[in-house]
Structure formats: C-alpha cells, structure tokens
Amino acid sequence: xxxxxxxxxxxxxPMATHLLAQGFDLRVNDANADLAGTxxxxxxxxxxxxxxxxxxxxxxxxxxxxxxxxxxRAGGVAEALGSGGVVVDTSSSDAGGTVMLGEELKARGxxxxxxxxxxxxxxxxxxxxxxxxxxxxxxxxxTVQPLLTALSAKLMxxxxxxxxxxxxxxxxAIAAAIFAVTSEGVDMGTRFGLDPAxxxxxxxxxxxxxGISEGLFPSQVLPRKFALGFGLPLMAKDVAMAEKxxxxxxxxxxxxxxxxxxxxxxxxxxxxxxxxxxxFRFNEQTASAG
Length: 290
What we know:
Helices cover 56% and strands 13% of the residues. With 290 residues, it is of the alpha/beta class.
C-alpha cells in the first residue's frame, strides 16, 4: 500500500518520519521545498505527484481551507488519487467543512476519514498519538487501520464523518475554558495574598481539580516557564472551530462564546509566537487593567 503524506510541519514531519521508519511505502510533500533533502527518495515535487500511484493520502495541514484546496484543485490530489482511494485528514479542520469535502470526494469515488490528533510532537515521533476517528465507511477504515495504528497509542472512533474534528475542537475549547478560569482564580488568590502554590494544592485536593490544574499550572505557570510547546494560535484556532460549530447548530453556549472571545483577545495581545500557557500572562494584564 503506497501512502502519500501531505504537510510536513511541526506535527506532520515527525509523523511521516515515524511511518518511514516503520517501513511504510511513503511519498511526501510540503510547501517548504527545503525539506526535499531531509526526505530523499520519499520526496515528491507536488501534492499530486505524491498522490499518484497511492491508495491512501494523509493530510496534516494548517486548516481545512488548505486541505480542501490541495485535494480538490485542478490537477490536485483527488485527480491523481482517483476512484477507490482514501483521504485521511489528520489536520485540525472544521467539522462542517469536512462533511462537505466528504460529499464532494464521494462523488469522485474517494472516501474521506477525519482523524485529528492529540499528543504533541514527542508522541508523534514515537507513534503514540491519540486519534479521534470520524467516518462510517468500514471498507475505508479497514484499509487505513494499519496506518492509523502505527501513528497512535489510542484510536477512538467517535461517529460519522466530521465527528473526529468536532470532538477535538470541543475538547480543546473545554480545556481552554478551564485554563482561563483557573488562571483567573490563581491570579485573584495571589493578589489577595495567598501563596499560589498553596492555593493550587487546595484546588488539586478539592472540586476545582482538573488535568489543567494538576499538570500545566505546576509545570508551566507557577515556575513561569510558559513553554508547553502548543502555540496560542493553535488553541485559538481550535476554539474558533468549536465556536463555528456552535453557530452552525444555532446554539447559545455562553461559555464557549466567551472562551472564543478571550482566546482571540489574548492572541491579538500576545502575538503569534505565544505559547498557549502564556494566556496566564494575558489574564494578569487584563485583570490589572480592569
């Protein structure tokens, strides 16, 4: 089975490197042609050339708009892949766009599976990511299961097409909201005179406990490292996709809406190079200004 892997950024590069190390027949491409030397014979000069002769195409691209363009553009991946192929989108794309792309690919005889990832660069290099799988085409899933298994420590099939992307966006929106309110509580307690480490100990022994308070605050916030390695732009994008889904469903979800506004405001203030945990600094600034 030949696989085309399109998108060799922070996550895509270690994922593709791991698949090559596992012996998969892989052709790769990225907009950054400087990576050609890194991948040697596996490099293809364009997405379409990577997909030519492949039965599966994996995308790990910045957003769903780019995924759609790379797949459907004239002379692009869909034409090179042809009927009977499978596209696996591991990018953080929006769920509604994934459903529409799936319908258009189905008309060409191509199956689409969404499989966004969680776990970060180190786990990508080790093939220990968590994958959230959307799609009900059993034949397509059987085809790509060895590939997905090689990339992951845990596969979770969460529903129909787009469900994987929806699940990731919702999860990250919840995580962002928890981080934001924990930031407010810790900052408020510190300003009152509480030792933040002591306050965090109380939180982690009580009902305010979360994975955020137990993990990120001791390791990143209290020592003021702010170096989780997951960028604020990425979190803001994921929360924006949850907000977009909320709007498409016609729902009033004030916490999701507020979290979206806060992440966008933090991004505008801190800039594209900020770590997600830098949100704590944004909270400090805005709390003082208020």
